[in-house]
Amino acid sequence: MTLQQLHYAIVISETGSLNKAAELLYVAQPSLTGAVRELEKELGITVFHRSGRGVTLTNDGVEFITYARQVYHQYELLMEKYGASGTLKKKFGVSTQHYSFAVKAFVEMVKQFNTAEYEFAIRETRTRTVIEDVSTLRSEIGILYLSDFNRRAITKLLKTNELEFHKLIDCRVYAYLWKGHPLAKEKAVRLEQLYAYPCLSFEQGGNSSFYFAEEVFTTNEYPRTIKANDRATMLNLMVGLNGYTLCSGIICEELNGDDYIAVPLADEACGDSEQMEIGYIVKKHQTMSKMGVLYIQKAQEYLAACAKTE
To answer: Distance of alpha carbon 158 from its chain centroid, rounded?
Structure first.
């Protein structure tokens, strides 16, 4: 088994196509197919199921790719540190719940590097996918939150996947509204006031537990609810339907614009159990890359600046 074979298998798993993988790797497809067959023969398992629609991972393949990513990531870190004259394009990825500060920190981090030499990725996605991405090293860092409500379930899942959580900031809960909303000028709002408007939340998938929700008070029965898949759609629904969502109150106007506002929930609605502890997750015993170290530094700087303005 060679590092090249591992790299081939990882790229095929990410593209779902031998043709696309061959193009990205600058390898003839017959050579790529032969390398994968040799790898499967050596391993004694079938890594990929081939069909007219492309290639998918088998059950054995899913487990193998998880380990392959870990091994290849360590190789990339070695090359990053000791192979300064090499031509390997270094990769760095972040998977996050829908936080504008996470994108802002990513932007500031990327500015410090030559994008011709690095391959960067930021993925705003579902909570379970954040955990899966970091577990399989598709992303080096994940951003999510804990509360007394979800802490036990999320912590157990992190432990199972050999991940550790590091706190960035504690936040109270806010209602996120557009500035034209009837409640936007209130100093604080009660949940009962918000119930007259659609409650917006990020979709976590049909079978996802409510422990994976990005918003607090997930067990409340809201008269009207609407789910969205991305932040842009969420913002449009706030304007078009006077919708609201519950958030940390940390808003990056540079990215989201200044047409939105965070109004704190009244104290009686937010007990200590409903505070949000936002942090990052990484693989246990994993050496963080210089991109990862700088990303966390930029996130901490931005959050500290936000805390001073409150």
So the answer is: 14
